[in-house]
UniProtKB/TrEMBL annotation:
Domain Gfo/Idh/MocA-like oxidoreductase N-terminal residues, every copy: 7-126
PANTHER family, sorted: BCDNA.GH03377
Name by which UniProt lists this protein: Dehydrogenase
Keyword terms: Oxidoreductase
SUPFAM superfamilies listed in its UniProt record: Glyceraldehyde-3-phosphate dehydrogenase-like, C-terminal domain, NAD(P)-binding Rossmann-fold domains
Gene3D superfamilies reported in the protein's UniProt record: Dihydrodipicolinate Reductase, domain 2, NAD(P)-binding Rossmann-like Domain
Natural source organism: Brachybacterium sacelli
A Pfam family: GFO_IDH_MocA
Biological classification of the source: Bacteria, Bacillati, Actinomycetota, Actinomycetes, Micrococcales
Amino acid sequence: MTGEPTRIALIGTRGFGAVHLRGLERLEAAGTARLVGVVDVAEPPAGLAEIHHRSLGDLLATVPAEDRPEIVVIATPIDTHVPLTAETLAAGLDVHLEKPPVPALTDHDALLEAARTAGRAVQVGFQARGGAGVDVLREEVAAGVFGEDVTVRAYGAWRRDRAYYRRSPWAGRRLLNGRRVADGVATNPLAHAVHAALVIAGIQEVSDVGAVTTELRRAHDIEADDTTFLRIDPAGEGPSVLCALTTTAPEQSSPWIEVTGSAGSHRLHYTDDVSVRTGPDGTTTELSHQRRDLMGNLIAHVRDREVELLTPLGSTGAFSAVLEAIQSAPDPTPITGDAVHWHGEGEAAHPVVEDIEQVLAAALERGRPFSELGVSWAHPEAVRTWTPTEA
């Protein structure tokens, strides 16, 4: 990429904003980007005081024309995404928006319209989409290489401690001060698996979604779900998506997405960018996949609008429909009693649901919610099916 570095501002310097700061340092070192300002209601990290502003409006009113940002990165609490993105678009700037992009399906349409009106782009930070393996599986599904009875499955067994769910006032919440934040396992920490699985299945827009079945559970002392089953059925032809996800595993393992059918399977470990393809005769082939940087992709798009975005806002409609289904379901049912074992002390303590990894695998293999597997802690009253007509 040639020319002057792209001018970038960051809203939110803590949490995942700190990850963006490190990424921007690498882009600055490569001569690709230049950080011209940060916005935060709190004091910024050391070294950023001279470019710190309390609001985007203050930044835009203060910086000279040569420092006016071209891209604004929004890495703030979920309930602030919509107003901050709308403000940024109205100022004529492109946006890199952290996931989940919106807390409600109606917000998705509103932001799409704001982007169209402004003639600007919104790239959503679903990091798994940067891995080329997602495109490989997506193209294989579209080409019909898996034969009949095709299903896309997403597995995520992560471990999170008390400190994780106390990292901010909105952590582990469904609502905060009456506003949605949707910080559940399927909509935040393992949202990448859900979104990538939908992309692979060819379910990207709201109109692609026929129905979403949910079963939400929690072992942590939180409001949102930490152990979740999802089934997303398409509106037309194509595979369904099954997701079994938790933050109550004994150890954190590499999450995966797998396509299965009568003609074989292909499992992608999207955080490692490796996959294993299994043929109908059982032979296996291991592949490695390149990774593209979402910010670098957005910069290239800003420089040349013919460059396609990896994860534009428009491609996240189906994910927002899944989020809507989760938020519309009853509050997650606690997993209590002998099924939960706590390990560690204080803020480092974390719950482990008995045999959770086997339960997740069984739910994916049978395509059934936890409550239909005979486990002691799951009951059918928590299962709910949502359709886009309810939105």
